[in-house]
Design a protein that fits this description.
Strand content: 15-25%
Radius of gyration: 23 Å
CATH architecture of the largest domain: 3-Layer(aba) Sandwich
CATH class of the largest domain: Alpha Beta
Structural class: alpha/beta
Strand order of the largest sheet: 2-1-3-12-4-13
Helix content: 25-40%
Largest sheet: 6 strands, mixed
Order of helices and strands: HEHEHEHEEEHEEEEHHEHEHHE
Number of helices: 10
């Protein structure tokens, strides 16, 4: 009888240990897709914070705006950090994905950068201006050009603007659409380029100090185009995801952003 009881207790202890190991292992590794700059750099700060809580953060870098959403929607990775809400919503609609925001982290002002033309005042007739070719960032670039009086768009078109919505073009500028990552490389061949903040930083350009003009960080753009952590719908309240958001919205991350990017990246939390 004693042997039977001992055997039962041993089995119960083994099950308890195995269950405990399984619980401890579950969700301890968080795999996040990110653009190299500034997203992966910011995640590196959060990595240390998460490590103190028992989480291992694995950062997988991508240089495009397509794969980070696909690998999250497929479940290959847990989250991504590279995009804003209008882009995410457009991507979901076009690709039948179900990515949602788990939290807003920062805002990157768009900038107009000098190419062959050194200033906005010197912009020649027929100037070529390169902008992102994805719909939401392309519209954002056009709105910035309108902000600076270079062109005028159909009234009320907002973030759905395309180059076909240009109703006034006093300088007869030509809008050249291209992959956002290629915009810094286009500067030698165009008069001006409107460049996403992360790609500008990758190229050694700071929108806050090097751009001829930037978006107003205190305006609606800051909320509309705030960069978010994207996850597959239904996972936004997972403990690991909540821990990731808390780490990214920590005071340590705020201090890192403010001290590292000189206004090119602005905390939004």
């Amino acid at each position: 009888m004693k042997k039977t009881l001992s055997l039962i207790l041993a089995l119960l202890l083994l099950v308890s240990v195995l269950s405990g190991c399984g619980a401890k292992k579950e969700n301890t590794t968080i795999r996040v897709a990110a653009s190299p700059t500034p997203h992966a750099e910011i995640l590196a700060v959060a990595k240390d914070i998460l490590a103190e809580q028992g989480y291992t953060l694995e950062i997988v870098e991508y240089t495009d705006y397509v794969q980070p959403n696909l690998v999250v929607d497929s479940g290959e990775l847990d989250a991504n950090y590279f995009q804003h809400t209008p882009y995410m919503e457009q991507f979901n609609e076009e690709n039948k994905t179900s990515i949602v925001s788990a939290g807003l982290i920062h805002y990157e002002p768009f900038g107009i950068f000098a190419g062959k033309t050194a200033s906005l005042a010197e912009l020649p007739d027929g100037a070529v201006i390169s902008i992102p070719n994805d719909a939401t960032n392309g519209a954002r670039a056009l709105l910035l050009l309108q902000q600076e009086g270079i062109l005028k768009l159909t009234e009320g078109v907002g973030i759905e603007a395309t180059k076909y919505d240009i109703v006034e073009n006093p300088k007869n500028v030509q809008i050249l659409e291209m992959e956002a990552a290629q915009l810094p490389l286009s500067l030698a061949d165009v008069d001006l380029a409107v460049i996403n903040g992360n790609y500008a930083l990758d190229a050694g350009l700071n929108p806050a100090t090097d751009a001829l003009a930037i978006e107003d960080a205190s305006g609606d753009a800051a909320q509309t185009f705030a960069n978010l952590v994207g996850v597959k719908a239904g996972r936004e309240n997972d403990p690991a995801i909540l821990a990731l958001i808390a780490a990214l919205q920590s005071e340590q991350v705020r201090e890192f952003i403010n001290s590292s990017y000189n206004g090119a990246v602005v905390p939004i939390f």
